[in-house]
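Deliverable D4.2, example record:
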Amino acid sequence: MPLSRLLTLIIGVIVVLAMTIWLITSLNWLYGQIAWSASPFLANLLLLLLIVLLAVLIGGLVYYLRLLWMPSASRKGSVRPPVTLPQKKSDAASVNLKAVRSQVEQIQDEVARQALKARSQAIESNLSQGNLQVVVFGTGSAGKSSVVNAILGRVVGRVSAPMGTTTVGETYTLNLPGLEREILITDTPGILESGIEGNERGEVARQWATEADLLLFIVDNDLRQSEYEPLQVLAEIGKRSIVAFNKSDLYAEGDREVILARLRARLRGIVPPSDIVAIAANPPVVRLATGEAFTPDPEIMPLIRRIVAVLRAEGEDLLADNILLQSQRLGDEARRLLDGQRRRQAMKIVDRYQWIGAGAIAITPLPGVDLLATAAVNAQMVVELGKVYGCELNLERGRELALSLGKTLASLGIVKGVVQLVATGLQFHVGTLVIGKAIQGVSAAYLTRIAGKSFIEYFRQDGDWGDGGITEVVQRQFELTRKEEFVKAFLKDAVARVVEPLHLQRDQAPERVKEPLWQPRDTPPRPPAQVQDPPSPKGDDWNQPPPRDDGW
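Output generated by the structure prediction step:
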């Protein structure tokens, strides 16, 4: 134990014991005084209180000693249990599929949800059945159907087919010696075909290739750049490929070795050299000296041996990897649909609050434009946006986020920039009597939109502003809203929602009688002249009151 902790323990114990002794002594004296001068009931009640206090003190002391002497035991319950990771790839695929199903259930589009459910069920079926999917992939007329015929040992397609014969994926069942699992081999349409239909068939082939456990890439010569690119893309997403150089019997021995060497050099790092083999799936008919026609046997065993070796060594991992890849791709598509759905819901909230704020500020303008940033970011809007993305916020937290973003808008000078942009755009739409109200109202709506879209990015990233922080997000949204197409559409909507109602309100207001700036003061009329009685002569005082005796 460290010395500082030991000293703290000793001092704490001494203080606690001293206080305990003092408390016991004081209460004992008090008990004696009460028992002697008052009723015994009060004395017993005081004794009970003493016992309770002693128990609390002893319990606190024991707890404190336990924390000091056994810190690991006290923290044992607070440690989170370790996260158990799946040991097998198949278990990881099952966990991923479960997460994908929960995402799919949140999609509101019925058609899209049912389609993703069907794909999820198909992946689960492949995982439970454990069939290995081998897909034959390559250019048209490279001999894919001939390779499938030779592998299966029976005619399943049209040999020597012209380009574009296989229009959809055709799947066949195959059992190879040494493998317990059943193999499903699929012949796909050719890639790199011309025309609209050729492009559509190529997309079908690529879709099949992305769902393969093992890919058989068929070529009939050296690899072209247009063939190399799709093979490289498939390798980047984790597809295991075997390259079969078909129609090798049409070349001399030396030329065949040169082509194989070129293929292995071009595909270094993508396909192992041992997985590039030469075959002849459909050798041409040979005329013997006797005139008889002779059909040589297909040289397909090098490819079959390589397929068996790869599937025997890596079949379980290839199957699990493919299931995991398909579930991840399905999850990506579900997240994309869910993100689009949430974005549409969030933009409806932003649209509603931006015009509510615009109307309120247009009716009651603010004393200064600096207050627009705070007024434009509504805390309730933040709470509702968080709810759309599954982030529950209380109103107090919404106010904190709104205030933070409002300060950012003001500090970046975006408020003044928006006011100037709106004033320039509205100069041909707004009358002089309502220009101040209109500019403030539309500017508030503009700022609300910037704030709302910034919060959408914040919630999309699980409540994180990213490496650049809130400043970079707000600045980027401001730049996006300054595009000419958006500004025109926004101002057009603003005129209809804010400016025209202000004009209508002004036109419907009752006219006040205009008073002149200066009005002469009216001269009050003279009072009418009053006829006074003629003064009485001095000697005639009969009508006068008698003089008052003032005591002089």
